[in-house]
């Protein structure tokens, strides 16, 4: 039985997951929230982006289940001896990838789908030194003659992966049709409606995105059974494995930093707008002073102080993973506590308008306490701004982590992140011949994550902010035409 390890960021991620589920339960009980989120559900790009974000979330959550495997007992150990656990911490994602080539390191660089090392080495062959490209330890190691068998083997593994991906895509489509069968009058009619896109929710676009994702994952998984799909880096580690491990870091930075930013932004923003006067002046002076300091310098100073504390207290960490995780957790807290000024300004301006409305003036006239007015009347009416800002800030924070790691003040060097991959690629791009696959892999994953987050955030902003809501002329015209036909 393994020993489960609960890191700071693991607890935070699963608490946030519980919070999201609780919010969904609240949405189901609120007619207004259901109608608002229904607008998001009718946006095809947003729902396609939600599928991609769910895939990233699954990878991040699997990588957040940490444990230490139990080692076999020592031969001379007593029967009642306590179990011994491995010093290295693993995750559920590591266990899933253990049987593939992704978890098998090489000696140094290797190109995508290569069978030989990217750099030459001198080896003794039949007593004579010879410089050539040696065979990889794991990539293509099953081939007896790589030059003759490589193309056919890659084609077979790719075809098997595509077939598996298509099978999962069809299974998902059948489950979707079965779930919509009662509403559409049978599963055949449900399939026809999905194919013709005759529903409020764009199920066809959602299934096509899911199918494309299944095909891509299936193809990569099929090739990963025998090759390093995106090559290896200087230390021989698989680049695709590093990208998958970097997903959790990006999700933690984006979500946990936003969560740390909300309490001071909401508290100071509503208090400044409601009380005005000296309270408003003090809060404005505080966030004006904070924003006048260059953000990178402020974060760098806090990160260096944090690193000094970690280095001077090594007895607090039993594993290297706990040390790296605490640095990531504190970095999120630093980014959140130094980046709340923008949201605070927005909430202050909105509260200044809301405090002059009749229902707030009536509550004050009846002697309702200030705390109750801010909690019951002001906070619910600014939550759309909080939600919009939180979703929009996610992608920016993911990119900000890449910049910080590039500057050397980001996550721990032992932790995988997209910023670390880009930092290493800076040196690799200047090599001759060029090592390009590390930067390309980080670019692909960052592009998919940030683009999906931005598209979903646009739909949330349009649904929750009436001033930014978009109206599609095509649907308005069709609705007007239908109304005209119904009239006698």
TrEMBL record:
Gene3D superfamilies registered for this protein in UniProt: MetI-like
Membrane topology label: Multi-pass membrane protein
Annotated InterPro entries: BP-dependent_transpt_permease (IPR050366), MetI-like (IPR000515), MetI-like_sf (IPR035906)
Major site of localization recorded for this protein: membrane
Organism: Bordetella genomosp. 7
GO terms under biological process: peptide transport; protein transport; transmembrane transport
UniProt name for this protein: Peptide ABC transporter permease
Family designation: Belongs to the binding-protein-dependent transport system permease family.
UniProt domain ABC transmembrane type-1: residue ranges: 247-457
Keyword terms: Cell membrane, Membrane, Peptide transport, Protein transport, Transmembrane, Transmembrane helix, Transport
Subcellular location per the Swiss-Prot or TrEMBL entry: Cell membrane
Pfam family of the protein (one): BPD_transp_1
Recorded GO CC terms: plasma membrane
Transmembrane segments: 6-25, 46-67, 158-181, 207-230, 250-273, 285-306, 326-347, 382-409, 435-457
């Amino acid at each position: 039985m393994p020993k489960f390890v609960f890191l700071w960021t693991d607890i935070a991620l699963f608490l946030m997951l519980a919070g999201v589920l609780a919010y969904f339960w609240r949405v189901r009980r609120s007619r207004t929230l259901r109608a608002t989120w229904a607008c998001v559900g009718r946006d095809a790009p947003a729902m396609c982006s939600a599928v991609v974000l769910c895939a990233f979330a699954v990878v991040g959550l699997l990588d957040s289940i940490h444990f230490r495997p139990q080692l076999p007992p020592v031969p001379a150990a007593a029967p009642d001896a306590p179990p011994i656990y491995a010093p290295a911490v693993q995750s559920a994602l590591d266990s899933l990838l253990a049987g593939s080539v992704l978890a098998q390191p090489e000696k140094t660089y290797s190109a995508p789908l290569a069978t030989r090392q990217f750099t030459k080495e001198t080896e003794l062959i039949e007593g004579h030194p010879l410089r050539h490209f040696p065979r990889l330890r794991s990539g293509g190691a099953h081939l007896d003659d790589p030059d003759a068998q490589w193309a056919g083997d890659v084609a077979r593994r790719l075809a098997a992966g595509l077939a598996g991906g298509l099978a999962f895509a069809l299974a998902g489509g059948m489950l979707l049709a079965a779930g919509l069968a009662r509403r559409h009058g049978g599963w055949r009619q449900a399939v026809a409606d999905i194919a013709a896109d005759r529903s409020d929710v764009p199920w066809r676009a959602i299934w096509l995105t899911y199918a494309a994702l299944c095909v891509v994952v299936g193809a990569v998984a099929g090739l990963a059974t025998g090759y390093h799909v995106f090559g290896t880096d200087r230390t021989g580690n698989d680049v695709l494995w590093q990208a998958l491990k970097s997903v959790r870091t990006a999700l933690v930075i984006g979500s946990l930093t936003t969560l740390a930013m909300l309490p001071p932004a909401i508290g100071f923003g509503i208090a400044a707008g409601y009380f005005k006067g000296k309270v408003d002046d003090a809060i404005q002076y505080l966030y004006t002073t904070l924003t006048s300091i260059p953000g990178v310098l402020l974060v760098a100073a806090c990160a260096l102080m944090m690193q000094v504390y970690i280095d001077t207290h090594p007895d607090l960490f039993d594993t290297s993973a706990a040390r790296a995780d605490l640095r990531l957790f504190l970095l999120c807290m630093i980014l959140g506590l130094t980046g709340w000024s923008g949201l605070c300004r927005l909430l202050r301006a909105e509260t200044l308008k809301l405090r002059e409305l009749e229902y707030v003036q009536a509550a004050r006239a009846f002697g309702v306490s200030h705390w109750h007015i801010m909690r019951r009347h002001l906070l619910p009416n600014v939550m759309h701004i909080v939600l919009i800002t939180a979703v929009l800030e996610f992608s920016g924070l993911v990119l900000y982590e890449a910049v910080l790691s590039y500057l050397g003040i980001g996550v721990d060097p032992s932790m995988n992140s997209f910023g670390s991959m880009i930092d290493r690629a800076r040196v690799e791009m200047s090599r001759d011949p060029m090592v390009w696959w590390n930067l390309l892999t980080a670019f692909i994953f960052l592009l998919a994550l940030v683009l999906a987050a931005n598209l979903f955030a646009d739909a949330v902003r349009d649904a929750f902010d009436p001033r930014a809501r978009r109206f599609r002329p095509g649907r308005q015209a069709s609705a007007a035409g239908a109304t005209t036909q119904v009239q006698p």
